[in-house]
Amino acid sequence: MQPPLTPCLVCEKAVIYLWPGRENKPDDHQLANLNGAAHIVIDAGYGSNFDGYEFEAILCDDCLDKLIQSKRVTPLVIPSW
Ligand SMILES: [Zn+2]
Questions:
Q1: 44 Cα to the center of ligand 1, angstroms
Q2: Residue 80: inside a domain, yes or no?
Q3: 78 domain residue, yes or no
Q4: Residue 81 forms part of a structural domain
């Protein structure tokens, strides 16, 4: 079975999962198996028209790097490896 193709939120480049299974177990570690992309969660709170909603999307590494360089996203955790 082929893993699902998922477009980048910004540039719509197709991103693949490195192994299948995400569609069967959406809450497991499969979130981390994107090939050259990151899984993002958008959490809307009080004051937003989407208060209480939670969304997910895919952001490719190229677009994420541009957002980091332009300081439009802020790193919260930087691993030590
Ligand atoms: Zn992109």
A1: 22
A2: no
A3: no
A4: no
0.85 exceeded by pTM: no
Q: What single-letter DSSP state applies at residue 32?
A: G
Question: Of 2, 19, 1, 7, nearest to 56 (Cα)?
Answer: 7
Give the pair of three-digit tokens for residue 21. Answer: 């299974």
Contact 57, 42 (CB under 8 A): yes
The tally of domains found in the chain comes to 1
**Residues, CB within 5 angstroms of ligand 1 (ion):** 8, 10-11, 13, 60, 63
Note the pLDDT tens digit of each residue in 22-74: 555 555 555 568 899 998 889 999 999 999 999 988 999 999 999 999 999 99
Tell me which residue range forms the domain holding 9. Answer: 5-69
User: Ligand 1 centroid vs 14 CA: distance in angstroms?
Assistant: 9
